[in-house]
Amino acid sequence: MDLKDVKTDSREVCDGDIFVAVHGFNVDHSQYIPDALKNGASMIITDTNYDGNVPCLNTDNINDTLDEVCKYIYNYNNELDLIGITGTDGKTTTSTILSKLLNLKDNTAYIGTNGIEYKNSIIKTDNTTPKKEELYKYFSYLKNNECKNVVMEVSSEALLHNRVDSFLFKYVIFTNITEDHLNIHKSIDSYIKAKLKLINYLEDDGIILINNDDEVCRKIKSNKTIYTYGMSCDSDFQIANIKYKKKYTLFTIKHNGVKYKIKSPYPFLYNIYNLTVAFIICYLERVDIRLLIKTIKSLDMVSGRCEKLDYGQRYNIILDYAHTENGIKNLINSVKKYNKRIIVVTGSAGGREQEKRSRIGKFLLDNTSFVIFTMDDPRYEEVNDIIDDMISDSNKTNYIRIIDREKAINYAFDNALKDDYILIIGKGRDNYMAIEDKRIPYCDYDVILNYFTNK
Questions:
Q1: Which helix (H) or strand (E) is 427 found in, with range?
Q2: What is the pLDDT of residue 180?
């Protein structure tokens, strides 16, 4: 029998695939066995009764069997060095930077929000952290193509749904932990608990890196080796002597009495943290320090993350994924230091965390010059209702609502003054807009490029 891939989603099954009817977080996938068969499944694995016309493996432990089948089909059993990065903010920027820097020493891949990047190839993915069977497939591909390290974003949802519990990590990084995704985790305690599960998947001699300036992270305890980083004087790797320039940032990393002077192309304090933790992993991996510091100077911007766009315009444009309360505050407070007008184009996602909208809206209205409220993945909610929530705790009038996001961005550019900062936040370089149950093709970056191309 020629078995191709392992699938747990019947909608993704193709001819020759094995369908494993796992018990999902909210649904038992065994009810989708008929759909999997219609789509061409050549084998069914289930822990329920099944009588059909293709081979079936009955098991008492569907999750363990999923692991064993994946190991067999994809011939992967923890051969790669995995570096898992989790946190409320900073996962994408940190992992992207780190994957680039580790390539100075060994072949390194990135897995995360921006897909899978290895050498010159990019594979788009649906989730920040792919499903377990997908990870087996990707890891197998990377192993077979001479990859040594994989730097991957590990989301709280992935940890809650046990997507990475079959893999061992050489390093685990905690960037920060603030309130987020409570629509999934229901409470901040459950959210933190999910994040901390990543420690359980460390190798025996694995290492944990912790943001020592984050209130939650600094409380993390483990019998594993822990290195801390931050501006706190008791940090193992201390950040000091920060100087912000127009086109770069200077700072120093102090460790064991040695000072490493860093010139970074990235603005703002939170990017110093992101770059510092990437530096630490490279330091521990014995990347040549002089080459490392030299390479940092010429790093490219991370797509959709504090991405400054220059088309010769008289004002400043920053495209950023900031959507959490903490991420938005960090961005706005960083830009406020330039003492220029700040215009923000933003919205709030539908179907989740309604309680945060008024806090975010009030902060923006209190701390920026003008806000253009628009759509941001409204799903099944009315965009006007979402905007009503965002302005409900403020009596400020320094805003306008423009439902169509493209028109909102164009309005910001049409009305910008010299030296203004136009912040387009919430979606980064996402390539869709979630409306009802559909993903409509859309990208902020394409809208911005089109504006200046056709101007």
A1: none
A2: 55
- Closest-CA residue to 4 (of 72, 78, 54): 72
The CA R_g of the chain, rounded to the nearest whole Å, is 23
- Strands 249-255, 237-244: pairing is antiparallel
pTM equals 0.88
21-40 burial string, b = 16+ CB within 10 Å, else e?
bbeeeeeebbebbeebbebe
Whether 79 contacts 146, CB under 8 Å = no
- Dihedral of alpha carbons 271, 276, 282, 287, sign: positive
**Which H helix or E strand runs over 290?**
helix 289-297
Dist CA 38 CA 14 (whole Å): 9
Q: Which residues pair with 202 in a beta bridge?
A: 169
CB burial class (10 A; 0-12, 13-18, 19+) of residue 250?
middle
Residues 190 and 322 in one domain: no
- In the three-class reduction of DSSP (H, G, I as helix; E, B as strand; rest coil), residue 364 is classed as helix
Q: What is the mean pLDDT, run by run of 10 residues, along the chain of 455 residues?
A: 81 95 86 94 92 89 94 95 94 96 98 93 90 96 97 93 95 86 64 91 97 92 96 97 92 98 94 97 98 97 91 96 91 94 97 91 98 97 98 97 98 97 96 94 97 90
**What would the two tokens of residue 435 be?**
């409306």
348 and 433 both lie in a single domain: yes
- Letter for the amino acid at 196? L
Q: Would residue 302 count as lying in a domain?
A: no
Expressed as residue numbers, the domain containing 101 is: 81-297
Q: Which amino acid type is present at position 370?
A: F
Same domain, 118 and 66: no
The three-class DSSP label of residue 87 is: coil
Q: Beta strand 370-373 with 399-401: parallel, antiparallel or unpaired?
A: parallel
- Report how far residue 273's alpha carbon sits from residue 93's, in angstroms, rounded to the nearest whole number: 10
